[in-house]
Design a protein that fits this description.
Layout (H helix, E strand, L loop, with lengths): L2 H14 L2 H6 L4 E6 L2 E7 L13 H17 L8 E9 L8 E11 L3 E10 L2 E11 L7 H11 L1
Antiparallel strand pairs: 1-2, 2-4, 3-6, 4-5, 5-6
């Protein structure tokens, strides 16, 4: 399966689960994907704003989380693991109507941890630099193996 199609399938499962991703990031568009790399766009809407009229830092942190996860999916992973560390450096701001460009890269994926980097820009300026580490040991298992492991732990 081509990388972009695979990542779109994973992103669809995130959205179909409902919850925060579906509410805050339903407008996130996957633009391109290659092994370990994704590019997305998001138009900043009113729902994304903070009380001071800028793009909310919580939203930008969530984009780092999702960007890292989708970069792991771009390594042909069906599950994307569980966050162990998230670092977000807010470099500049974004405002209503800006188009956020999200470039995410899986820097390394091992048997236990995956390390990702995410850069968010708007209007040609860096808005956020992020790093996201995820525990992926169970993500390497097939769905059947994972279900068997969950059943044996209950």
């Amino acid at each position: 399966m081509p990388v972009l199609k695979h990542v779109q399938k994973v992103w669809t499962t995130f959205l179909e689960a409902g919850g925060f991703d579906a509410q805050a990031l339903s407008g996130l568009k996957l633009v391109s994907a290659s092994k370990g790399f994704i590019k997305c766009e998001l138009d900043v809407a009113q729902i994304h704003m903070n009380r001071l009229g800028g793009c909310h830092g919580g939203l930008l942190s969530s984009i780092v989380d999702i960007g890292g996860s989708l970069a792991i999916a771009a390594e042909n992973m069906h599950a994307t693991g569980v966050s162990t560390d998230l670092n977000v450096s807010f470099v500049s701001g974004a405002k209503l109507g800006d188009k956020l460009i999200i470039n995410s890269r899986c820097d390394k994926i091992g048997g236990t941890l995956a390390y990702t980097s995410v850069e968010i820009t708007a209007n040609g300026k860096v808005v956020v630099l992020g790093r996201h580490t995820k525990y992926v040991r169970l993500a390497h298992l097939s769905n059947a193996e994972l279900q068997q492991r969950i059943s044996s732990e209950e």
